[in-house]
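Quick illustration for those who missed Monday's session on complexes.
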Amino acid sequence: MAITKIQNIAVMTSGGDAPGMNAAIRAVVRAATYYKKDVFGIFRGYQGLIEGDIERFTARRVSNIINRGGTILKTARSAEFRTPEGRKKAYENLKKFDIDALVVIGGDGSFRGMKIFAEEFDLPVIGIPATIDNDINGTDFSIGFDTASNTAMEAIDKIRDTASSHNRLFFIEVMGRNAGFLALYSGIAGGAEDILIPEEDRGINELLNSLMRSKRSGKTSSIVVVAEGDKTGKNVFELAKYVEKHLKEYEARVVVIGHIQRGGCPTTLDRVLASRFGVRAIEALLDGQTRKVVGFKNNRIVLYDLDIAIKKQKPVNQELIDIIEILTT
Ligand code: F6P
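Prediction with 6-O-phosphono-beta-D-fructofuranose bound:
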């Protein structure tokens, strides 16, 4: 590892929380301590940095958190950090604590803020992808996605029981403002009859056709998983009304799973991913790397340019879309 001048490293969580963020904080703190660096926790993301909400962390400060959902550092979406004045205040607070490098655990919005900040103040930074949406380009998985898709799948399983008892059609909205990863994974795992995602605009007639095919094939109940950002209807409630109006044989209900998907104990996969990401982030900084993101690609932990993470939308895996029709035959 190259020798850098870095001694004091800060870590924050930013944007929407994701199960496994605590495991990542723990890994960052423990790795920094292992390499004899001082480490600081910044509370409430960039907003806390602007307000100087910073605490020196020890390895023991992160005991017993690997299993906990949420983030002990809290999180926020800061409008003030989008202004040059806000970022200047943030930098002054870093200087007060002699912090000379920053690890940001969050999604693409948080990474965009990190890039501007790093450029303005020439600060070494590394990003750790954490979002239940799994929409950060350059990494196959982000922290929180596995847990959230399991939570959504369990909800779908439960709804299937009542859907089948009543011969009903359920529309289940899962999170994913701009991305369909959660919908695809939970939908395929939950055996959904159809899955609607923002990346693929099939039109409402195609949905009606697919539901008619389901009926004709002898299915008595159906589940359609809809990503929050899908635009097939005005919203999931309007969509259900439209389908009931045009397919009289269906009695529809709507469930919005919502923020339940953001909470809960992280799965093994999320804990291990977060632990690997955290250690790699610290090693990257100590190796003199900056403006990079740690990721998981082809079964390996990788380091890649921040621009790759923020400049392109992550494509969904076409093969997942292709198998839906086959599986719902
Ligand atoms: O980005 C993660 C996410 O959970 C999205 O799927 C969702 O649209 C959004 O956050 C909700 O954000 P908030 O909790 O601020 O309402």
